[in-house]
Write a structure and sequence with these properties.
Elements (H helix, E strand, L loop, with lengths): L16 E3 L7 E4 L7 E6 L5 E5 L3 E5 L7 E4 L8 E6 L5 E5 L7 E5 L7 E5 L7 E8 L2 E10 L5 E8 L6 E2 L12 E2 L8 E3 L39 E4 L1 E2 L3 E5 L7 E4 L9 E8 L5 E7 L10 E4 L7 E2 L10 E4 L11 E5 L2 E4 L7 E5 L9 E4 L4 E5 L5 E5 L3
Length: about 400
């Protein structure tokens, strides 16, 4: 619904970081080989990662970012891929965002040599915002509210049980949206699923790392998946309301919770939601037209999303994405990365929030984040920006 038009930027930048209290991990810029605006990012392992962006672009690395390959999905040059979810060096799903038929779902099983178009939104008022998967055959798409048969606005949710065909969750199952309420296709993180035990973000589970065996070809091995058993779905909204919708039974019934995140104009609300387990989650947002405006823009839940407490960090600014650090430890429940267009907040050390900013000569901006299973995260943004932060706290 929001953030539909973004200016293209034409030059790659050299990344120079000014850090505060960031001795244990060093941010590292990676050459993405593209100028496109990147808003989708998904890591499969410490070595395999995918990203996506404007003009039908997707990126792939199999060597921990030492080399990125950038390409365009055939006949998709006019599309804006706001989401990518990958399961190996070979298999990935792409979601484009845009009005009506510009919202689509693509799938590859051969590292992008061929892409199949799985779904095209036929409703001219439809607009996809975010995509998440429990495993390679069970996924969900969130779209902006569209009118049901009674004329009531309901969020559009599509689900797949085989990784190939998509069906709508019946609108009758969903609570009504408030006039002016929508979702943000800013960082592919306004919908959240609970990964199975021992897995990394977005439900991908690596039973082994194929790169530990030098005789194994990365293009021939698929990271094995743990079957999804959890039934939780959370998604977050903005605009006239900043609410969290939660289903504990894969979309059959829903509980809607008001949150303290700033909202009102169509540029404000919750942009990102993430859960580390069934009880602990985070939401982040604010007003993207006023990125330096103080919050409340960051909040946490310790009861599965029933109540939300604003972070004590001040000032907060606007955040487009939030992700838990996988190895921060259970003793510190709110260990997250929060992404502002101009800096990264690293909250992994209790009581010592760290702000990582580009140097004065850099024009770097950030959009999205995906966490590594071993700690740390990968960040993407405009002008083909790709930056990694290693674990180590």
């Amino acid at each position: 619904m929001f953030l539909r038009q973004f200016l293209m930027r034409q030059a790659l930048v050299v990344l120079v970081f000014a850090t505060v209290a960031f001795a244990q991990s060093t941010p590292k810029a990676q050459l993405s080989n593209t100028h496109e605006d990147l808003r989708g990012v998904n890591v499969v392992s410490e070595r395999i990662g995918w990203a996506s962006g404007t003009h039908g672009t997707y990126l792939r690395t199999t060597d921990a970012g030492a080399h990125w390959t950038a390409a365009i999905v055939p006949s998709a040059e006019a599309l804006d891929f706001r989401a990518v979810v990958a399961f190996s060096a070979d298999e990935a799903f792409l979601m484009s965002a845009g009005p009506g038929e510009q919202s689509r779902i693509y799938h590859t099983t051969d590292a992008g040599q061929h892409w199949s178009l799985q779904f095209t939104n036929s409703n001219p008022k439809g607009f996809f915002d975010s995509m998440a998967f429990w495993d390679s055959t069970h996924g969900i798409i969130l779209g902006d509210p569209i009118a049901d048969e009674t004329g009531t606005l309901k969020f559009e949710l599509l689900i797949t049980d085989d990784g190939q065909t998509w069906r709508p969750i019946p609108p009758a199952n969903l609570p009504a949206a408030i006039t002016g309420e929508g979702a943000f296709a800013a960082s592919n993180s306004c919908i959240a699923l609970l990964p199975p035990e021992g897995t990394r973000e977005n439900g991908t589970a690596a039973r082994h790392d194929p790169f530990k065996n030098p005789k194994t070809s990365s293009s021939a091995i698929r990271v094995r998946m743990v079957a999804a058993r959890d039934a939780n779905i959370w998604f977050a909204t903005g605009g006239s309301a900043a609410r969290v919708f939660h289903s504990a039974d894969r979309g059959q019934t829903w509980l809607v919770t008001q949150t303290p995140i700033a909202h009102g104009p169509d540029s404000a609300g919750i942009f990102s939601i993430v859960f580390r387990d069934a009880l602990h989650g985070a939401i982040a947002g604010g007003d993207y037209k006023h990125p330096d405006q103080d919050g409340p823009n960051l909040a946490f839940t310790h009861d599965g999303g029933r109540t939300w407490t604003v972070s004590t960090i001040h000032p907060q600014a606007y955040f487009s994405a939030v992700a838990y650090d996988a190895k921060a430890g259970r003793d510190y429940e709110d260990a997250v990365f929060a992404v502002n267009p101009s800096f990264i907040f690293d909250l992994r050390v209790p009581g010592i929030p760290t702000r990582v900013s580009p140097g004065k000569k850099a024009e770097l901006k950030f959009n999205a984040v995906s966490a590594f299973a071993g700690g740390g995260a990968l960040f993407v943004g405009p002008k083909g920006t790709v930056v990694s932060v290693a674990g180590g706290h």
